[in-house]
Structures are given as structure tokens and as C-alpha cells.
Design goal:
This protein is mostly helical and 201 residues long. It is built from 9 helices and no strands. It is 76% helix and 0% strand.
Amino acid sequence: VATDAAQRLSLIIPIIAAFLLFGEVLTGTRVLGLVLGFLALGALVYRPKHTGGGEHASMSPPAARTPLWLFGVWAGYGIVDILFKQVAKQGTAFPLTLFVSFGVAGLLLLIYLLVARVRWQGNALAAGLLLGALNMGNIYAYVRAHQVLSASPSIVFTGMNVGVIAVATLIGVAVFKERLGRINVLGLLLAIGCVAVLFLA
């Protein structure tokens, strides 16, 4: 939950960049949409703390190192969002950049797996290929959204982050029978409000 929260709250980094680096105009409607978005993210990733020991307690990383890793997640995702906006500026040439990036990443991962001598499983490989294809499609659509809404990067940044966690929450309920608390349900309502306000902005 902490990692997911750090990832989603990294939204503050590209939002600041949208106004300071990309010259987006700050309006009252957009401020309202951003506030609703952050409230929605906080409510959606909220999970009550469970106390208790057991084997999971011994697997936790040292407390002193946890903030550093969470900061890395927060800063890393925020910087990546800004870089996607930069990629969008390439115009029609950006698909080649994505293809090369995914290709290099895939090659490095393959080398690592061969060196580590992992045990290959057909089902896992097929699922990985499907996940990779969906991920690349998601990033392609994300960059295209930045191109279409080039003057409003904050809308794209916020819409993607809020949309992903909201849809993931609904899938968790429908497929994995996850139970939502009142705060999580409030988060879904705030997410809908956020998207609606940003759309009107």
C-alpha cells in the first residue's frame, strides 16, 4: 500500500512541471480537478493497518531503508511522467523511440534471465508477453494523449493516474472479490468527480 501510494502521489512532480516547465495556464477549474484527484488517490490506496507478527514481519525491509526506497518510487515515477511528455514532443517519430526503448529493455531482461538461469514456464511467458503488449499500448495511448492535449499536460497526468487506480480498484472488486471500505468508495466517487471536472476544464 505504501509503495502504491508513493507511486500515485508522484503525480505532484509532473503537475508542478506542467505549470513551471510546460507553460500550462493555471485556472480555478483545473485546481479543483487536481485537488479532487489527489483526494481520490489518497482514498483509493487507503487500507487499514493490520497488526500482528508471523512470517511476513520477518520479511519486511529494515525500517531505516524503507523511506529511501519509497522516495525512489516517488521520484522515479514522477520523472518518468515528465519524460513521456518530452517524448510526445517528437511528433510522429515517437513510436520509433518507444519501440527502441522496449526492445533494449527486453534484450537486457533476456540477458539477465539467461545469466540467472531461470526456469522457463510457458504460461508465465505467455502472460508476460500479453502484459508487455498491453503496457506498450498503454504508453502509446498516454503519449498520444499528451500530443492531442499538448496545452493541458496536467489533465493527462492526473487523468491517467486517477483512472488507472480507479479501474484497478474496480477490477479488484469484480475479479478478486476485494472488499472496499467507505473511504475507498469515497475515493471512487472523488475519482469520477475529478475526471469530470478536468474534462470540463
